[in-house]
């Protein structure tokens, strides 16, 4: 069985968990805190980042969330998530990059720093200017999701794709950390609430990061 | 024909240019300075980043260097660069991410800030501490390339792949900006010099960024 090295608020591990659930791939979770810089983990992955996934029986270690998602897309046929024409596949991958890189850099990474790392690792108070900047950028990203959902049922087109999983993974972490103000974003909120009721999402919503509590609406599937 | 929006020292555009040359895909270059934040460019790509590639006759616009590389890999059979078993393809993509994200963040991005953006956009002096930090991290990345080339002829295995193109693209920009000290890295230097003599590399080596001069060894294919 696959063993996934991750921590509860790693958005890239969440994307991979959603993909594996949607494809009915069995896996177990192995807790890895990258900020502890464990030697054994660096031996597996020289960048020291989560997720890493290992299949001991098959002697396979896979690294980098996008590389791992492509691997499962190529090896497991059920519920294809990077599908359609080459142009549609390029659109899916463009949006995955937008959420993995831009949304993460603008929103998720600063929220993780201010509300998780500073609390449980650095023991510092959060910087409210950084929080406000992240929330303002989150609002711009929600505008873009609203625009996409005005034109398409799912982010990359007519069917669910890895773009939706990547976006939902980032949003779920930002929402856990109190960084998302949904008001005025009915399209994004509607798209996300559909997601929250999917079976693949339930383990994420039920999980808690020690020392960091989410707002009440976070795991309410009707919110 | 494809029209590629880029600027001479964009490492992601360089990766794409190498891929297209290796696959004999014809394209023209369109100069785009992302720091000018041109409205028309943001309308094409909401992240405002290069490269973007357009095929006016086919009404296609593609965004994000990795998504574009995958697109050409899927649509143009010549010289496959993400090939082999699913595990080998995962290894190629892991290394592409390592160079696109880690090498870029550690080395190329700070060098571009200190030696290009500060000179031609901000009109500030470079910060020598940032330069030293980038060069120290470059040295660690070269150690890793040495290690890979000790074990394999090309970065991801027995044949050239997108991993080599991604690494060479980042290294070429860092080398242009004087951030690479090759001494003590014979394996990496040997691998890179093979690259420098490939026809796909010649247009990159001949090109200059206005206001920023490379060191003498940069375009010397025997250095």
TrEMBL record, chains A, B:
Residues 1-80 form the GST N-terminal domain. InterPro entries: Glutathione-S-Trfase_C-like, Glutathione-S-Trfase_C_sf, Glutathione_S-Trfase, Glutathione_S-Trfase_N, GST_C, Thioredoxin-like_sf. Residues 85-218 form the GST C-terminal domain. Pfam families: GST_C, GST_N_2. CDD domains: GST_C_family, GST_N_family. SUPFAM superfamilies: GST C-terminal domain-like, Thioredoxin-like. Homodimer. This is Glutathione S-transferase family protein.
